[in-house]
């Protein structure tokens, strides 16, 4: 998904205080889907691949171009877990707190990572380095407790190892 188009963030004349998004890549996608039924979800997927998440101005632009009410677009974007409405970190750290992982100490891993990163689970560090998430069963209960750091599954985790792995992320 990420290989699609790299994007697209510019700054205003005043500097970096305010970001402006280049809609050209999104317009190309919208051109491809023009007039097609059921375009909304694939368009949202492609838009997220371009921008990394779905900021309000992107959703408004999609609404304008598809003629779909903004409320309906928000309804879809918030219903599916695959869509992100907040800017995400360069790295995703997902700690499992499903039953098997929970009984084997996932809570301590989550607490250690929250302390290390200075954010709560579900949040992104202010420098957008890491998004910390809690998930519920990754299907690898035999390896519990488990986390997925970016695409890599790490099993039999302990808090110290989780912190060390996160420190290695650039
Ligand atoms: S409960 Fe964590 S992988 Fe299943």
Features:
alpha+beta, disordered N terminus, elongated, Arc Repressor Mutant, subunit A, 170 residues, 7 helices, binds FE2/S2 (inorganic) cluster, two-stranded antiparallel sheet
Would you mind describing this structure in some detail?
- The longest helix is centred in the first third of the chain and has 12 residues, at about 40-50.
- The chain is about 40% helix and about 15% strand.
- The model is unreliable at about 1-5 and about 10-15 (pLDDT under 50).
- A four-stranded mixed sheet has the order 4-3-5-6, with helices on one face. Strands 1-2 form a two-stranded antiparallel sheet.
- A hairpin with a 2-residue loop joins strand 5 (about 145-150) and strand 6.
- It is of the alpha+beta class and about 170 residues long.
- The protein has helices spanning about 25-35, 40-50, 55-65, 70-80, 100-105, 105-115, 160-170; strands spanning about 10, 15-20, 90-95, 130-135, 145-150, 150-155.
- Bound molecules: FE2/S2 (inorganic) cluster.
- The site of FE2/S2 (inorganic) cluster (FES) has 11 residues, from helix 5.
Tell me the number of strands: 6
| Count of DSSP H/I helices | 7
- Name the poorly predicted regions: 1-7, 10-17
- Please give the share of residues in helix: 40-55%
Predict the CATH topology of the largest domain: Glutaredoxin
Using the coordinates above, name the CATH class of the largest domain.
Answer: Alpha Beta
């Amino acid at each position: 998904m990420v290989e699609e188009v790299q994007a697209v963030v510019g700054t205003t004349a005043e500097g970096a205080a305010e970001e402006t998004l280049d809609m050209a890549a999104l317009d190309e996608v919208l051109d491809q889907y023009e007039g097609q039924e059921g375009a909304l979800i694939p368009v949202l997927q492609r838009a997220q691949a371009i921008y990394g998440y779905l900021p309000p101005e992107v959703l408004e632009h999609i609404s304008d171009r598809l003629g779909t009410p903004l409320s309906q677009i928000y309804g879809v974007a918030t219903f599916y877990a695959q869509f992100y409405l907040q800017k995400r970190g360069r790295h995703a750290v997902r700690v499992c707190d499903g039953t098997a992982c929970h009984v084997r100490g996932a809570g301590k891993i989550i607490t250690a990572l929250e302390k290390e990163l200075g954010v709560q689970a579900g949040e992104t560090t202010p420098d957008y380095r890491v998004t910390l998430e809690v998930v519920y069963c990754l299907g690898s209960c035999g390896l519990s407790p488990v986390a997925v750091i970016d695409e890599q599954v790490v099993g039999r985790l302990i808090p110290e190892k989780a912190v060390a792995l996160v420190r290695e992320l650039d």
